[in-house]
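Section 5: illustrative case.
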């Protein structure tokens, strides 16, 4: 069952019209949520990122879009899919409805839809035997700026980059901005570990304002033995790193095991995922 503006519909009955602005122009935003036994991981951070993104896109945020309202709609959707007592992946999609060309008409009002599917792992784990190969994706580049950091439906680079990765037997690719700095992976933020120092690209470089990125930075800031830096990363730094890992809300921390000829360990990532799970248990 899919939640369309509060109505629970079967997938067969939940088709978007061809006039939907999210479909026609990518005039839409989304949040990918991990929910375990009815608990939405980092819900407050997801909610405030969505509200901020809607303001940036100049969407008229409905008065009903409170954190409590959207949470109840998510839980209602999970219950309708028998996932309220399970681990689930949820997508909350917000678009500007229908009306207008590039310029929305006054009749174009914000719509939302929520879908849910089973997700097997309730907590975050790292399999030390799993290989994860990446390379640079250099066919297209991301322009630094505020719009690049939004979780919008304009994901052309991620789509064709993922096709490129599949065609070349990579598990993921790293994306460059127009300044040729490495900004993120196709499906998450990037962190590098070198001599006990942790580095991740700044939001100004065009990377996604990731919810898991925020959690990791908060965890690291509490460790007096760790030095953190948000700074541009050149491709040359990747092969000099001790560890590379990707973060997103669904999988947590994904260690990169090989980039070109360089192989990496995952000792720091393993210690970090333990702290992440401990934080979740305390919340």
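Designed sequence:
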């Amino acid at each position: 069952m899919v939640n369309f503006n509060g109505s629970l519909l079967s997938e067969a009955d939940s088709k978007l019209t061809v006039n939907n602005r999210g479909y026609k122009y990518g005039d839409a935003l989304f949040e990918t949520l991990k929910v375990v036994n009815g608990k939405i991981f980092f819900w407050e951070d997801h909610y405030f990122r969505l509200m901020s993104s809607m303001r940036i896109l100049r969407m008229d945020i409905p008065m009903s879009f409170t954190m409590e309202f959207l949470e109840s709609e998510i839980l209602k959707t999970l219950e309708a899919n028998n996932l309220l007592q399970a681990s689930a992946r949820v997508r909350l999609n917000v678009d500007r409805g229908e009306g207008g060309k590039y310029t929305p008409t006054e009749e174009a009002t914000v719509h939302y839809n929520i879908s849910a599917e089973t997700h097997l792992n309730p907590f975050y784990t790292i399999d030390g035997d799993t290989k994860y190969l990446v390379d640079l994706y250099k066919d297209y580049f991301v322009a630094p700026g505020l719009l690049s950091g939004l979780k919008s439906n304009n994901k052309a680079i991620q789509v064709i980059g993922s096709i490129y990765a599949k065609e070349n037997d990579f598990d993921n690719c790293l994306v460059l901005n127009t300044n040729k700095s490495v900004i993120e992976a196709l499906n998450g933020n990037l962190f590098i570990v070198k001599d006990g120092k942790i580095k991740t690209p700044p939001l100004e470089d065009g990377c996604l304002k990731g919810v898991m990125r925020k959690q990791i930075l908060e965890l690291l800031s509490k460790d007096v033995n760790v030095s953190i830096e948000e700074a541009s990363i050149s491709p040359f730094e990747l092969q000099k790193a001790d560890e590379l890992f990707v973060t997103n809300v669904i999988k947590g921390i994904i260690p990169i095991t090989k980039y070109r000829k360089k192989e990496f360990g995952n000792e720091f990532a393993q210690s970090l995922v333990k702290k992440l799970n401990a934080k979740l248990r305390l919340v």
